[in-house]
Amino acid sequence: MRQLLVAQDNVIALRQLPGAQRRSVRRAAEIGEWRALSWQVYLASPNAASRQQLLWAAVLHGGPGARLCGRNALVLHGWNQELKSPYDVLIPHAAQPKRPPEWLRLHRTVREISGPAATPARTSPHVATVHAAAWADTDRAALFVVISSLQQRLTSVRHLLSSVDAMPKLRRRALIVEAAKEYADGVQSLNELDFGRWCQRFDLPVPIRQTRVRDAAGRLRALDVEFRTASGESLRLEIEGLHHLDPAQYFADITRHNDLAVVRAGMSLRVTTWHLRHEGAAFASVLRQALAF
Protein backbone atom coordinates (compact mmCIF):
# COMPACT_ATOMS: atom_id res chain seq x y z
CA MET A 1 0.00 0.00 0.00
CA ARG A 2 2.82 2.39 0.81
CA GLN A 3 4.26 2.12 -2.71
CA LEU A 4 0.86 2.82 -4.26
CA LEU A 5 0.33 5.90 -2.09
CA VAL A 6 3.74 7.27 -3.09
CA ALA A 7 3.09 6.62 -6.79
CA GLN A 8 -0.48 7.98 -6.71
CA ASP A 9 -0.02 11.21 -4.77
CA ASN A 10 -1.42 9.73 -1.53
CA VAL A 11 -4.62 8.51 -3.20
CA ILE A 12 -5.73 4.87 -3.39
CA ALA A 13 -8.71 2.79 -4.52
CA LEU A 14 -10.10 -0.06 -2.42
CA ARG A 15 -9.94 -2.35 -5.45
CA GLN A 16 -6.14 -2.04 -5.30
CA LEU A 17 -6.00 -3.53 -1.80
CA PRO A 18 -6.62 -6.93 -0.17
CA GLY A 19 -9.59 -7.31 2.17
CA ALA A 20 -7.79 -6.60 5.46
CA GLN A 21 -6.26 -3.37 4.17
CA ARG A 22 -9.62 -2.25 2.78
CA ARG A 23 -11.12 -2.51 6.25
CA SER A 24 -8.20 -0.54 7.68
CA VAL A 25 -8.71 2.24 5.14
CA ARG A 26 -12.44 2.49 5.86
CA ARG A 27 -11.75 2.60 9.58
CA ALA A 28 -9.17 5.37 9.13
CA ALA A 29 -11.76 7.40 7.21
CA GLU A 30 -14.40 6.83 9.89
CA ILE A 31 -12.16 8.25 12.64
CA GLY A 32 -11.05 11.19 10.50
CA GLU A 33 -7.45 10.15 9.78
CA TRP A 34 -8.18 9.59 6.07
CA ARG A 35 -10.73 11.18 3.74
CA ALA A 36 -13.15 9.42 1.39
CA LEU A 37 -13.09 11.05 -2.06
CA SER A 38 -15.65 8.71 -3.63
CA TRP A 39 -17.36 5.45 -2.69
CA GLN A 40 -14.14 3.50 -3.20
CA VAL A 41 -11.30 6.06 -3.47
CA TYR A 42 -9.55 7.46 -0.41
CA LEU A 43 -6.98 10.10 0.44
CA ALA A 44 -4.42 9.14 3.08
CA SER A 45 -4.87 12.46 4.87
CA PRO A 46 -7.63 14.29 6.75
CA ASN A 47 -7.01 17.41 4.64
CA ALA A 48 -8.95 18.43 1.55
CA ALA A 49 -7.60 16.92 -1.66
CA SER A 50 -5.50 19.05 -3.98
CA ARG A 51 -6.40 19.36 -7.66
CA GLN A 52 -3.60 16.96 -8.52
CA GLN A 53 -4.92 14.43 -6.01
CA LEU A 54 -8.42 14.76 -7.49
CA LEU A 55 -6.92 13.80 -10.87
CA TRP A 56 -5.80 10.53 -9.34
CA ALA A 57 -9.11 10.04 -7.56
CA ALA A 58 -11.00 10.61 -10.81
CA VAL A 59 -9.14 8.03 -12.86
CA LEU A 60 -9.07 5.51 -9.99
CA HIS A 61 -12.83 5.85 -9.53
CA GLY A 62 -13.29 5.08 -13.22
CA GLY A 63 -11.73 1.67 -12.71
CA PRO A 64 -9.34 -0.39 -14.85
CA GLY A 65 -8.93 1.04 -18.33
CA ALA A 66 -10.15 4.50 -17.34
CA ARG A 67 -8.31 7.58 -18.57
CA LEU A 68 -8.52 11.28 -17.82
CA CYS A 69 -9.85 13.18 -20.81
CA GLY A 70 -10.93 16.64 -21.86
CA ARG A 71 -9.68 19.88 -20.33
CA ASN A 72 -7.68 18.46 -17.41
CA ALA A 73 -5.98 15.83 -19.55
CA LEU A 74 -4.97 18.66 -21.88
CA VAL A 75 -3.52 20.60 -18.95
CA LEU A 76 -1.42 17.56 -18.02
CA HIS A 77 -0.09 17.54 -21.59
CA GLY A 78 1.15 21.11 -21.11
CA TRP A 79 -1.81 23.34 -22.00
CA ASN A 80 -1.22 26.63 -20.20
CA GLN A 81 -4.51 26.66 -18.30
CA GLU A 82 -5.42 25.55 -14.77
CA LEU A 83 -6.92 22.29 -13.61
CA LYS A 84 -10.54 22.70 -12.64
CA SER A 85 -13.69 20.77 -11.81
CA PRO A 86 -15.44 18.77 -13.13
CA TYR A 87 -12.85 16.11 -13.86
CA ASP A 88 -13.74 14.16 -17.02
CA VAL A 89 -12.86 10.49 -17.29
CA LEU A 90 -13.33 8.15 -20.25
CA ILE A 91 -14.34 4.60 -19.31
CA PRO A 92 -15.04 1.41 -21.32
CA HIS A 93 -18.70 0.99 -22.19
CA ALA A 94 -18.92 -2.25 -20.21
CA ALA A 95 -17.54 -0.70 -17.01
CA GLN A 96 -19.97 -0.45 -14.10
CA PRO A 97 -18.63 2.12 -11.61
CA LYS A 98 -21.03 3.44 -8.99
CA ARG A 99 -22.43 6.96 -9.19
CA PRO A 100 -19.54 9.46 -9.23
CA PRO A 101 -19.20 12.44 -6.89
CA GLU A 102 -20.30 15.85 -8.22
CA TRP A 103 -16.76 16.90 -9.17
CA LEU A 104 -16.38 13.92 -11.55
CA ARG A 105 -17.98 13.21 -14.94
CA LEU A 106 -17.76 9.75 -16.50
CA HIS A 107 -18.02 9.29 -20.28
CA ARG A 108 -18.58 5.83 -21.75
CA THR A 109 -17.09 4.81 -25.08
CA VAL A 110 -17.22 1.71 -27.26
CA ARG A 111 -13.93 2.73 -28.89
CA GLU A 112 -10.61 1.46 -27.64
CA ILE A 113 -9.25 3.91 -25.07
CA SER A 114 -5.61 4.63 -25.75
CA GLY A 115 -3.10 7.25 -24.77
CA PRO A 116 0.52 7.86 -23.83
CA ALA A 117 2.29 5.86 -21.13
CA ALA A 118 1.83 8.52 -18.44
CA THR A 119 0.49 8.76 -14.91
CA PRO A 120 -2.21 9.39 -14.10
CA ALA A 121 -3.53 7.69 -17.24
CA ARG A 122 -4.88 10.11 -19.85
CA THR A 123 -5.93 10.26 -23.47
CA SER A 124 -3.65 11.68 -26.16
CA PRO A 125 -3.41 15.49 -26.46
CA HIS A 126 -5.30 15.28 -29.77
CA VAL A 127 -8.28 13.47 -28.27
CA ALA A 128 -8.09 15.63 -25.14
CA THR A 129 -8.32 18.77 -27.30
CA VAL A 130 -11.36 17.47 -29.17
CA HIS A 131 -13.16 16.47 -25.97
CA ALA A 132 -12.27 19.72 -24.17
CA ALA A 133 -13.74 21.69 -27.07
CA ALA A 134 -16.84 19.50 -27.28
CA TRP A 135 -17.56 19.87 -23.56
CA ALA A 136 -16.66 23.55 -23.21
CA ASP A 137 -19.33 25.85 -21.76
CA THR A 138 -19.68 27.97 -24.91
CA ASP A 139 -18.77 27.88 -28.60
CA ARG A 140 -16.25 30.67 -28.02
CA ALA A 141 -14.59 28.68 -25.24
CA ALA A 142 -14.45 25.70 -27.61
CA LEU A 143 -12.73 27.81 -30.28
CA PHE A 144 -10.20 28.96 -27.71
CA VAL A 145 -9.41 25.35 -26.79
CA VAL A 146 -8.80 24.34 -30.40
CA ILE A 147 -6.74 27.33 -31.46
CA SER A 148 -4.65 27.63 -28.29
CA SER A 149 -3.82 23.90 -28.41
CA LEU A 150 -2.68 24.28 -32.02
CA GLN A 151 -0.70 27.40 -31.14
CA GLN A 152 1.09 25.60 -28.33
CA ARG A 153 1.94 22.67 -30.63
CA LEU A 154 0.08 20.22 -28.39
CA THR A 155 -1.70 18.86 -31.43
CA SER A 156 -1.84 19.44 -35.17
CA VAL A 157 -4.57 20.03 -37.70
CA ARG A 158 -4.02 16.55 -39.15
CA HIS A 159 -4.30 14.84 -35.76
CA LEU A 160 -7.33 16.89 -34.76
CA LEU A 161 -9.24 16.11 -37.95
CA SER A 162 -8.33 12.44 -37.63
CA SER A 163 -9.64 12.37 -34.06
CA VAL A 164 -12.88 14.10 -35.07
CA ASP A 165 -13.39 11.66 -37.95
CA ALA A 166 -13.41 8.82 -35.43
CA MET A 167 -16.21 10.49 -33.42
CA PRO A 168 -19.24 10.90 -35.72
CA LYS A 169 -21.58 11.84 -32.84
CA LEU A 170 -19.20 14.38 -31.29
CA ARG A 171 -20.76 17.58 -29.97
CA ARG A 172 -19.61 20.72 -31.88
CA ARG A 173 -18.08 18.51 -34.55
CA ALA A 174 -18.59 21.07 -37.33
CA LEU A 175 -17.21 23.93 -35.23
CA ILE A 176 -14.03 22.02 -34.32
CA VAL A 177 -13.42 21.04 -37.95
CA GLU A 178 -14.00 24.62 -39.10
CA ALA A 179 -11.60 26.04 -36.51
CA ALA A 180 -8.88 23.53 -37.40
CA LYS A 181 -9.20 24.25 -41.12
CA GLU A 182 -9.21 28.02 -40.51
CA TYR A 183 -6.00 27.60 -38.52
CA ALA A 184 -4.44 25.63 -41.36
CA ASP A 185 -5.22 28.60 -43.63
CA GLY A 186 -3.22 30.95 -41.41
CA VAL A 187 -5.32 31.86 -38.37
CA GLN A 188 -2.96 31.99 -35.38
CA SER A 189 -5.25 33.29 -32.63
CA LEU A 190 -8.89 33.42 -31.66
CA ASN A 191 -8.85 37.16 -32.36
CA GLU A 192 -7.82 36.56 -35.96
CA LEU A 193 -10.50 33.92 -36.47
CA ASP A 194 -13.08 36.43 -35.25
CA PHE A 195 -11.58 39.07 -37.52
CA GLY A 196 -12.00 36.93 -40.64
CA ARG A 197 -15.69 36.58 -39.87
CA TRP A 198 -15.87 40.28 -39.02
CA CYS A 199 -14.51 41.15 -42.49
CA GLN A 200 -17.22 39.02 -44.12
CA ARG A 201 -19.88 40.76 -42.04
CA PHE A 202 -18.80 44.23 -43.21
CA ASP A 203 -18.05 43.16 -46.80
CA LEU A 204 -14.32 43.85 -46.52
CA PRO A 205 -11.56 42.07 -48.46
CA VAL A 206 -10.18 38.74 -47.27
CA PRO A 207 -7.11 39.58 -45.17
CA ILE A 208 -3.63 38.13 -45.61
CA ARG A 209 -2.84 36.40 -42.32
CA GLN A 210 0.41 35.65 -40.52
CA THR A 211 2.80 37.19 -43.08
CA ARG A 212 6.33 36.59 -41.80
CA VAL A 213 8.79 39.51 -41.97
CA ARG A 214 12.05 40.52 -40.32
CA ASP A 215 12.05 43.53 -37.98
CA ALA A 216 14.74 46.18 -37.42
CA ALA A 217 16.77 43.75 -35.29
CA GLY A 218 16.56 40.96 -37.86
CA ARG A 219 14.07 38.91 -35.83
CA LEU A 220 11.44 36.96 -37.76
CA ARG A 221 7.98 38.30 -36.87
CA ALA A 222 4.45 37.35 -37.88
CA LEU A 223 1.99 40.13 -38.73
CA ASP A 224 -1.52 39.56 -37.38
CA VAL A 225 -3.28 40.77 -40.52
CA GLU A 226 -2.19 42.47 -43.74
CA PHE A 227 -4.14 44.03 -46.62
CA ARG A 228 -3.19 45.62 -49.93
CA THR A 229 -4.48 49.14 -50.50
CA ALA A 230 -5.83 50.41 -53.83
CA SER A 231 -2.34 51.66 -54.69
CA GLY A 232 -0.73 48.32 -53.86
CA GLU A 233 0.80 49.44 -50.58
CA SER A 234 0.86 47.27 -47.48
CA LEU A 235 -1.69 47.99 -44.74
CA ARG A 236 -0.82 46.16 -41.53
CA LEU A 237 -3.28 45.57 -38.71
CA GLU A 238 -2.48 44.41 -35.19
CA ILE A 239 -5.42 42.86 -33.31
CA GLU A 240 -5.12 43.21 -29.56
CA GLY A 241 -6.94 41.23 -26.88
CA LEU A 242 -7.34 41.89 -23.17
CA HIS A 243 -3.92 40.44 -22.35
CA HIS A 244 -2.44 43.51 -24.04
CA LEU A 245 -3.66 45.58 -21.07
CA ASP A 246 -0.87 44.04 -19.01
CA PRO A 247 1.90 46.70 -18.78
CA ALA A 248 4.72 44.35 -19.73
CA GLN A 249 2.78 43.05 -22.73
CA TYR A 250 1.79 46.58 -23.74
CA PHE A 251 5.42 47.79 -23.75
CA ALA A 252 6.50 44.73 -25.72
CA ASP A 253 3.77 45.41 -28.28
CA ILE A 254 4.91 49.00 -28.75
CA THR A 255 8.49 47.83 -29.34
CA ARG A 256 7.29 45.21 -31.83
CA HIS A 257 5.13 47.78 -33.61
CA ASN A 258 8.03 50.25 -33.98
CA ASP A 259 10.56 47.59 -35.02
CA LEU A 260 8.27 46.55 -37.86
CA ALA A 261 7.31 50.11 -38.84
CA VAL A 262 10.87 51.15 -39.65
CA VAL A 263 11.49 48.28 -42.05
CA ARG A 264 8.06 47.84 -43.65
CA ALA A 265 6.59 50.44 -46.01
CA GLY A 266 2.92 51.28 -45.85
CA MET A 267 0.36 52.07 -43.18
CA SER A 268 -0.15 50.36 -39.87
CA LEU A 269 -3.32 50.25 -37.75
CA ARG A 270 -4.12 48.77 -34.35
CA VAL A 271 -7.52 47.66 -33.09
CA THR A 272 -8.76 45.93 -29.96
CA THR A 273 -11.15 43.01 -29.89
CA TRP A 274 -13.49 45.21 -27.85
CA HIS A 275 -13.73 47.70 -30.73
CA LEU A 276 -14.40 44.92 -33.22
CA ARG A 277 -17.23 43.58 -31.07
CA HIS A 278 -18.83 46.82 -29.93
CA GLU A 279 -17.82 49.46 -32.48
CA GLY A 280 -17.36 47.30 -35.55
CA ALA A 281 -19.12 49.60 -38.01
CA ALA A 282 -17.00 52.59 -37.00
CA PHE A 283 -13.72 50.70 -37.44
CA ALA A 284 -14.93 49.17 -40.71
CA SER A 285 -15.39 52.72 -42.01
CA VAL A 286 -11.82 53.65 -40.97
CA LEU A 287 -10.43 50.50 -42.60
CA ARG A 288 -12.27 51.18 -45.89
CA GLN A 289 -10.78 54.67 -45.98
CA ALA A 290 -7.29 53.26 -45.43
CA LEU A 291 -7.76 50.65 -48.14
CA ALA A 292 -8.84 53.32 -50.64
CA PHE A 293 -5.39 54.95 -50.65
Features:
293 residues, alpha+beta, Trna Endonuclease, Chain: A, domain 1, 4-stranded mixed sheet, 3-stranded antiparallel sheet, 12 strands, elongated
Please describe what this structure looks like:
This protein is an alpha+beta fold and 293 residues long. The chain folds into two domains: 50-182, no CATH class; 190-291, Trna Endonuclease, Chain: A, domain 1 (3-Layer(aba) Sandwich), CATH 3.40.1350. The protein has helices at residues 2-7, 19-30, 51-62, 70-76, 125-134, 139-151, 157-165, 173-184, 190-201, 247-261, 273-278, 280-291; strands at 11-13, 35-36, 41-43, 67-68, 87-92, 104-109, 208-209, 212-214, 220-222, 225-228, 234-240, 267-272. It has a four-stranded mixed sheet with strand order 7-10-11-12. The chain has a three-stranded antiparallel sheet with strand order 1-3-2, sandwiched between helices. The longest helix is centred in the C-terminal third of the chain and has 15 residues, at 247-261. It is elongated, with a radius of gyration of 25 Å.
Topology readout:
Layout: H1 2-7, E1 11-13, H2 19-30, E2 35-36, E3 41-43, H3 51-62, E4 67-68, H4 70-76, E5 87-92, E6 104-109, H5 125-134, H6 139-151, H7 157-165, H8 173-184, H9 190-201, E7 208-209, E8 212-214, E9 220-222, E10 225-228, E11 234-240, H10 247-261, E12 267-272, H11 273-278, H12 280-291
Parallel strand pairs: 5-6, 11-12
Antiparallel strand pairs: 1-3, 2-3, 4-5, 7-10, 8-9, 10-11
